[in-house]
């Protein structure tokens, strides 16, 4: 009976996997790539026209907005400066530290809340009170709580990444099929084995989704903290450029934040896909 219970899903997966792989393998999506490139090109063109003509639309003005060519020159100058490595390195170290701490805490708390009514009653109410507080509101308290500005910025990054990971983990843990849990119990699995072999694999897609969202939120919160209490970092560079009226560098900093946030979120999704080989057949480009 045990072998049948294992073989039937395996045979079903064997029949479906080639079909799914064939559905997503066939041709290169050149049309979609061209459409995306065209959308970016159109955005750059509109930006160039608005900045070059110094449009003033009343509520929005482009009089002081640099053109894409000005931003490209500023980006080239920054790329040749030793400050770029210091700013990017500082921001990456802060984001990674806060994100990893949030990932560990969010997964542990989320699994506990999602699978235990007692943990849900004890932990969820205070967490729900803290969740809507924006990162800016944490900055004064973080400066008072921690002995260094570095730790306070890591803490703010941690708070930003924690709640997306936590809530997605709770959702994934709650959505675990009761039949799978009952089947594991009938085969003699204890609570630890059920958590390890059933709950965590079932909740893994939701955890990865929350981690990808949390990484983007971590960048948002870190930049806010760096603008106020940092000495190095992309957020500090952007704010310093504003105070010095280097408008070209402001846009360079903004684009750098966007690129780093996009790349780090993509890296989280890629690592999650490697950790969940059973979901790769359904991934769409």
UniProtKB/TrEMBL annotation:
Matches recorded under InterPro entries: MetI-like (IPR000515), MetI-like_sf (IPR035906)
Domain ABC transmembrane type-1: 88-268
Annotated TM spans: 33-50, 92-114, 135-158, 250-271
BP GO annotations: alkanesulfonate transmembrane transport
Gene3D superfamilies: MetI-like
Keywords assigned: Cell membrane, Membrane, Transmembrane, Transmembrane helix, Transport
Cellular component GO terms held in the UniProt record: plasma membrane
Biological role stated in the UniProt entry: Probably part of an ABC transporter complex. Probably responsible for the translocation of the substrate across the membrane.
Protein's name according to its UniProt entry: ABC transporter permease
Species assigned in the record: Methylobacterium durans
């Amino acid at each position: 009976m045990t072998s049948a219970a294992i073989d039937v899903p395996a045979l079903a997966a064997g029949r479906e996997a080639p079909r799914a792989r064939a559905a997503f393998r066939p041709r290169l999506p050149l049309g979609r790539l061209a459409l995306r490139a065209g959308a970016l090109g159109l955005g750059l063109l509109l930006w160039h026209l608005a900045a070059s003509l110094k449009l003033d639309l009343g509520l929005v003005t482009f009089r002081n907005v640099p053109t894409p060519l000005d931003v490209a020159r500023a980006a080239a100058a920054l790329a040749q400066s030793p400050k770029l490595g210091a700013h990017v390195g500082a921001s990456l170290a802060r984001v990674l530290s806060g994100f990893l701490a949030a990932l560990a805490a969010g997964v542990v708390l989320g699994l506990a809340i999602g699978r235990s009514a007692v943990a849900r009653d004890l932990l969820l109410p205070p967490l729900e009170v803290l969740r809507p507080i924006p990162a800016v509101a944490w900055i004064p308290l973080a400066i008072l709580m921690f002995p260094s500005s570095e730790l306070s910025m890591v803490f703010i990054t941690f708070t930003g990444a924690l709640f997306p990971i936590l809530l997605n983990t709770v959702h994934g843990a709650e959505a675990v099929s009761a039949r799978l849990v009952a089947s594991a119990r009938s085969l003699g699995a204890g609570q630890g084995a059920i958590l390890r072999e059933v709950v965590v694999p079932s909740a893994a897609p939701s955890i990865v989704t929350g981690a990808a969202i949390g990484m983007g939120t971590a960048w948002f919160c870190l930049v806010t903290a760096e603008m106020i209490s940092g000495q190095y970092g992309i957020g500090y560079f952007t704010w310093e450029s504003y105070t010095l009226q280097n408008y070209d560098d402001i846009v360079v900093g903004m684009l750098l934040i966007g690129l780093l946030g996009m790349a780090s979120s993509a890296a989280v999704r890629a690592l999650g896909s490697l950790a969940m080989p059973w979901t790769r057949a359904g991934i769409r480009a």
